[in-house]
Design brief:
The relative contact order is 0.13. The protein has 636 residues and is of the alpha/beta class. Helix 1 packs across helix 5, helix 3 packs across helix 4 and helix 13 crosses helix 15. The strands form 4 sheets. The chain has a 6-stranded antiparallel beta sheet with strand order 2-3-1-9-8-10, with helices on both faces. The two termini are 34 Å apart. The radius of gyration is 25 Å and the shape is globular. The longest helix is centred in the middle third of the chain and has 20 residues.
């Protein structure tokens, strides 16, 4: 699968074989072939079979001025082809998406990004100007990382490659933000000397220096109050259908993640419907808790997604549904390999990530090259209007506020009074006062209290255990929050690229489509939970697409109800590792290992208790320890 790389030194002449060895050493475990173009001051490489790589991944203009390496999966390709042909650009059936992107650059220059739709990472060297230009797609679905020192620029799609070449130490501020559940910013990585090029940004490097600039942002998108409810639902379905259909174009034996929720079910049903036209089948994978255990009864939720997955299968005859549990699965082999390639911690709970690795492994074994997910569905198609009540309070529409909250939250009695009072409080008070109440009075304050982390470590990095509350208390309306949520897409990109390298399978998310998200942001907040129906628009748009028993189900799915049992499977190994980590000077300064061991000792007494925080905090601790350990030879 594709992986692009660039090495530029504008002052010193490069020796291609030396650069090639640096690059391949950084990918020592990879089975990919790497091929390259090089000159006195540039080295461009791309993974893949030689013929395909030279033909579709590495490019040289006819006048030998421009050299490029490109990783692109484009949407609305017909529109781009029409634009190119109108300017007499030669197009053939053999032109790949990468080739079309290069031709767009040769025609439009740096403005090519306004003509490209889809996912792309572009690295272009102008040999006449001795200038490097790079660009990342509008939402950041294709990753691009870089490091610059004096006259040298190194670019790759996975941060450990860059970190290995520049010998970058760990970025402990990034780790502190991760452990405190706060955002370190879109450019920060786990390595001090490695930066991420943000979504919708260009990067230019020349003898004049380095310059990054934004060419796209969702900040200018505004709600369209003229939209009707039915119009919004119809358009959402149309855009979702297009998004799924275009991503199926590159799919071989396509597979999907299928839970009992609205997002993955919508993706799966649209894919099955499209594939049925050509009499193709769709493989779906559903995570289920391990058999033979007793699990707690959780009011208002379901803990087994299997029955809902089979309701979808009953509706679409071309679906093959596989139920997958995690019996006997350890977090360590998967996580160690993943961190070695990705060098990234952007996962909330790595125990709740294990099932995706089992899905990917099965995709690889059946020859599937694409696994569809619906991770950004809660932004683009099934947002729940969580802050609309606060908007009503701030506008003085008290009666509407009370009716909206009572219906959407199904509140009664004293609980309703307490919740309504709290919401009114949040709508009008300063953020600092809200944080104080959340910390010392409301139950919300315990959500991010990561007791496994030492206060001294967080304090040294300008944080504390309540920093999460500070970061999330500033939003008092839906649209600003949702715009902020779009940044999460670029955080996930490195994981998808890592899956390509490990499994040869692309994870594609049709709910993270630019046109879909842009339109979704224009929909007025009141429609997302219209007339008291939570996620009303999604339920409306999927009439006839999803089985009604799933479409109208108001229960929430609760994954990882067997998290304590998963931890028990790893208990001996976790304790053995902690014994070593306690002797590691950097890790000992970060974690309360004795407290963790004490909690693990009492775990067997609480096996059937549902405590998602324990697996979240523990998996984050394990991930950080592994990442620091495997990069400990690089000192600050």
């Amino acid at each position: 699968m594709s992986l692009i790389f660039g090495f530029f030194d504008l002052e010193n002449e490069l020796i291609p074989n030396q650069v090639y060895r640096l690059f391949t050493r950084a990918q020592a475990d990879s089975k990919n072939e790497f091929h390259y173009l090089s000159g006195a001051h540039f080295f461009l490489a791309r993974s893949g079979v030689k013929e395909d790589t030279i033909k579709n991944g590495l490019f040289v203009s006819e006048d030998d001025r421009y050299y490029g390496t490109i990783d692109a999966r484009l949407n609305r390709v017909g529109l781009l082809v029409d634009k190119l042909q109108k300017h007499n650009v030669s197009i053939s059936e053999e032109d790949s998406h990468n080739s079309l992107a290069f031709k767009a650059y040769l025609l439009f220059g740096e403005d090519c990004t306004s003509h490209l739709q889809g996912d792309f990472a572009l690295v272009i060297y102008d040999s006449l100007k001795e200038e490097i230009w790079c660009s990342r797609d509008h939402l950041g679905i294709s990753p691009l990382f870089y490091s610059v020192t004096n006259s040298t620029l190194i670019i790759a799609q996975l941060p450990p490659i860059v970190a290995s070449i520049v010998n970058s130490p760990i970025n402990y501020n990034y780790i502190a933000n991760y452990l405190a559940f706060t955002d370190s910013g879109v450019s920060e990585t786990a390595f001090k000397a490695v930066r991420s090029l943000p979504a919708g940004h260009d990067l230019k490097f020349s003898s004049s220096g380095l310059r990054a600039s934004s060419y796209y942002s969702v900040d200018k998108v505004k709600e369209n109050e003229a939209l009707s409810y039915n119009e919004a639902a119809t358009k959402l379905l149309e855009l979702m259908s297009t998004s799924v259909r275009e991503r199926l174009n590159s799919a071989k034996h396509p597979s999907t993640m299928l839970s009992g929720g609205l997002d993955s079910s919508t993706v799966s049903c649209l894919a099955a419907k499209e594939l049925a036209k050509s009499k193709e089948r769709l493989q779906t994978y559903t995570y289920v808790p391990m058999d033979g255990n007793t699990y707690p009864v959780l009011p208002g939720v379901f803990i087994n997604e299997g029955p809902y997955a089979f309701k979808v299968k009953e509706m679409y005859e071309n679906i093959d549904c596989s139920l997958v549990d995690l019996k006997g699965v350890s977090i360590f082999p998967y996580l160690e390999k993943h961190l070695k390639y990705s060098g990234s911690l952007e996962v909330n709970n790595f125990y709740n990530w294990l099932w995706s690795q089992e899905f990917l492994k099965r995709c690889k074994s059946r020859g599937s090259n694409v696994l569809f997910s619906g991770q950004m569905g809660n932004l683009s198609i099934s947002y729940n209007g969580r802050l609309y009540g606060l908007e009503l309070v701030r506008k003085g529409r008290w009666k509407e506020f009370v009716g909206y909250e009572l219906k959407t939250k199904n509140l009664k009695g004293y609980g309703a009074i307490r919740y309504l009072t709290y919401q009114m409080f949040c709508a009008v008070v300063p953020s600092k006062l809200r944080v104080f109440v959340d910390t010392h009075i409301s139950r919300l304050g315990g959500h991010s209290y990561n007791w496994m982390v030492k206060d001294s470590f967080l304090n040294r990095n300008g944080l504390n255990k309540r920093s999460f509350l500070v970061a999330n208390s500033v939003f008092k309306a839906d649209l600003p929050l949702r715009k902020k949520m779009t940044a999460f897409i670029q955080k996930l990109a490195v994981h998808s690229k890592t899956y390509e390298q490990i499994y040869g399978v692309k994870e594609l998310d049709p709910t993270a489509d630019r046109q879909l998200i842009e339109y979704s942001l224009t929909i007025p907040s009141k429609y997302w939970s219209y007339k008291g129906q939570n996620r009303a628009l999604t339920r409306e748009m999927t009439k006839g697409l999803l089985p009604d028993s799933l479409r109208l189900n108001n229960k929430k799915g609760r994954q990882l109800v067997d998290s304590n049992h998963l931890i028990m499977q790893d208990l001996g190994e976790i304790k053995r590792r902690i014994a070593n980590w306690k002797e590691h000077p950097q890790l000992e300064e970060i974690f309360e290992f004795d407290k963790v061991l004490s909690a693990l000792d009492s775990l067997s007494l609480n096996l059937n208790k549902y405590d998602p925080d324990l697996s979240t905090f523990l998996s984050r601790m394990i991930a950080v320890c592994l990442l620091v350990e495997m990069n400990s030879e690089r000192v600050n």
